[in-house]
Amino acid sequence: SPEYATIQSAMDIAVSGDTVLVADGIYSGEGNVILNFRTKSIVVKSENGPDNCIIDCEEETESQAFLVNNGETDGSCIKGFTVRNAPVGIAIYNSSPTVKNNIIEDCRKGIHCDAGSNPVINSNMIRNCVGEGNGGGISLISSSAVVSNNLLLGNSSSKGGGIYCLDGAPSIINNTIIGSSGIKDSSESN
Q1: CA–CA separation, 165 and 30 (whole Å)
Q2: Furthest-apart CA atoms within the chain: distance in Å
Q3: Which residues, in sequence order, are bridge partners of residue 108?
Q4: Is the pLDDT of residue 188 over 80?
Q5: pTM for this one?
């Protein structure tokens, strides 16, 4: 398969139905962060799992590893990365991608879903995401996400350190939340 200078350049050339296989390494900087599917139903996955393929957002103020915001569906898949040092590891707006088998760590918010996004968030480890807003690990605003079999460790925020929910009707199934902190009321869960 061809080699590309950045992850985004490979995603840009891919067509729906393709898989973008990302080689082992640490990826950062332009073309390797704020990755966008641009409506395509493609799988973006690491070659050898999250321990070997890291997207480091390097604490850039406006940076996410992935920004999914073009109405993508579950055929748009993020699989097998470690995402670290981002304000938001994976930001999802008005889209419903699949987020599976990733490690998201040391971000201010792990995964943020908003504006009618209904992603499948399955079998991820989200750890040490500490921020001021709502939802350190996973934030679901007006979202009917399916959140299952995730491990959330040591996440904290003002409200809903592990998982924060506001509006929507998410399905939260078989997740393990350990060492998370946040102010709790009837609309949120830690």
Answers
A1: 32
A2: 51
A3: none
A4: no
A5: 0.93
Contact 122, 128 (CB under 8 A): no
Cα–Cα distance measured from residue 8 to residue 178, given in angstroms and rounded to the nearest whole number: 34
Query: Based on the number of CB atoms within 10 Å of its own CB, is 168 exposed (0-12), middle (13-18) or buried (19 or more)?
Result: middle
Q: Which residue reads 């393709």 in tokens? A: 18
CA 67 – CA 173 distance, rounded (Å) = 25
- Does residue 11 sit in helix, strand or coil? helix
CB atoms within 10 A of CB 124: 30
What 3-state class would DSSP assign to 22? strand
Q: Which of 155, 152, 154, 117 shows the shortest CA–CA distance to 133? A: 155
- Locus of tokens 């929910």: 165
Q: Which pLDDT band holds residue 166 (cuts at 50, 70, 90)?
A: very high
Which residue carries 């139903």 as its tokens?
41
| DSSP letter (8 states) at residue 69 | -
Element (H, E) at 7: helix 7-13
Question: Can you tell me the distance from the alpha carbon of 164 to that of 142, in angstroms, rounded to the nearest whole number?
Answer: 11
